[in-house]
């Protein structure tokens, strides 16, 4: 009886850690995507400025 509770508790803890890791990864991917958009817009602005000269 005690080992089943211990196993269930360990599984719960591992699940919580796994889900928190996924949350951090998703947040990081969102930041990377935003940085990519910003870099693309900056590059487009530089090209537009060079073409206007």
TrEMBL record:
* PROSITE patterns named in the record: PROKAR_LIPOPROTEIN
Residues spanning the signal sequence: 1-20
Alphabetic keyword roster: Signal
Superkingdom is: Bacteria
* Protein name in UniProt: Entericidin
Identify the species of origin.
Rhizobium rosettiformans
């Amino acid at each position: 009886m005690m080992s089943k509770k211990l196993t269930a508790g360990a599984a719960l803890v591992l699940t919580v850690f796994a889900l928190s890791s996924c949350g951090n990864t998703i947040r990081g991917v969102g930041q990377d995507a935003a940085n990519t958009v910003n870099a693309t817009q900056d590059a487009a602005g530089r090209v537009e400025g060079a073409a206007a000269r």
